[in-house]
Structure prediction request, 309 residues.
Amino acid sequence: MKLGRLASLISPRRWRACRELFLHTAPSYWKTAFLHAGPSRLTLKDGRSLEVSRAAGDYRFWDWFFANRPGELQFTDAGEIVLDLPGASLLVRPGTTDDVYLREMFFEDSYGLKSMPALESVLDLGGNVGYFSCAAFPKSKRLITVEASAALHRQATKNLVRNGGRAEDVLHRAVAGTSGQEVTLHVAPKNTGAATIRADLTEKRHLESERVTTIDLADLLARLGTPRVSLVKCDIEGAEFDVILQTPKQVLQRIDRLVMEVHLRSDEHRELRQQMRARLEDAGLRIAVRPLPSHASLALEIWNVERAV
Prediction:
């Protein structure tokens, strides 16, 4: 038993939610306290059931859900949580970090999307399971999502199609400086945001690898089919240096706004950071940098890049 979770046994809010949602109130109330690490099964009133466990990290989603009750809840036959929010219906996979990115995109608005005006066109580079794209889709006329991981690409496609997008606009590619190369993607199955083609950024959690074809920014803008791109969201786990430094200046000049996560681990990365900044500024873009909480030896920054007026 995890003593730190005993407080979750005293929650009138969670008791009311369990009574509304689940077939058996008291067992569900006990199971969603996650006092034991082993698996438990939750059954909705419609008979659909889902296996969860503290060891898989599922308590994060349920603690957040009971605290916020953000929308209606269902389970799929594939063992996914269906969360119906205002304006979006999203699939959340238990045992992954999907819930972390759900909160970042829809509730914390980490990329400032809610304050942006209507967007003519959007590129989502490093689409993960598609949550950012689902948030951007209602306010954009044209949107393309790119995800390198095969599993995440499938999930992003399901989420986008569920919300009115087209499967053909979700590309299974790794964004890089050059198109058409076969590269190795290092995958962390339980951490949905950690897949990288940069071997120098891999960690023990990267237990698997797969091969994927690259696509560069020039080819993506050509596929987008618009003279300019209103917004590029970029979270590609260290490949951003290669992308920005190898993209022709005239292509970068077609970007009106870029929101990018920058990954810094070594002196080499910091040197590349300076080169990348100079490259963007030379293309007429101005940069505001916001540091993020660092972990281990990896420093993270969010770059808000806009066309200088």
Remarks:
- The chain is about 30% helix and 30% strand.
